[in-house]
Design a protein that fits this description.
Strand order of the largest sheet: 1-2
Largest sheet: 2 strands, antiparallel
Radius of gyration: 28 Å
Number of strands: 6
Structural class: alpha+beta
Strand content: 5-15%
Order of helices and strands: HEEHEEHEEHH
Shape: rod-shaped
Helix content: 40-55%
Length: 127
């Protein structure tokens, strides 16, 4: 590219696609021409939750947000009484309603499990 000397400073600072630009999310330096490609994969860019909860999460935190121990309200999770026999899987934001409306059923399942464990312990002690 041919230009006049007095235009060089402006070109280098504002127009040149080889000028160094900083990613506003991770603060890493990139040539201007490669910045858009970087933004497509930058781990610090906020992206919408894939479970459509409406939150924006840094790209590298999406897995933590949507996994069962995360905080996405739309993630499917097992009932905490699964080990006692409750097979319900629901969205995290629906769990409180499930637990509230199934208190008696969960108590019965816990009692049945305790009885089975007591019987097993008795059998083992009798051997």
């Amino acid at each position: 590219m041919v230009m006049k000397r007095h235009q060089l400073h402006y070109h280098i600072r504002s127009v040149c696609d080889r000028r160094i630009a900083m990613c506003k999310f991770c603060n890493d330096p990139f040539e201007q021409r490669g910045l858009q490609g970087h933004l497509n994969v930058c781990p610090k860019v906020p992206v919408l939750c894939p479970r459509e909860c409406g939150l924006k999460v840094e790209r590298d935190n999406v897995d933590d947000h949507v996994n069962e121990s995360g905080n996405c309200p739309n993630t499917l999770i097992n009932c905490p009484f699964k080990d006692t026999g409750c097979d319900v899987t629901c969205k995290r934001h629906e769990l409180r309603e499930h637990l509230t409306s199934n208190v008696v059923e969960h108590q019965i399942k816990q009692q049945q499990m305790i009885i089975k464990q007591q019987q097993m312990m008795k059998r083992l002690s009798d051997e």
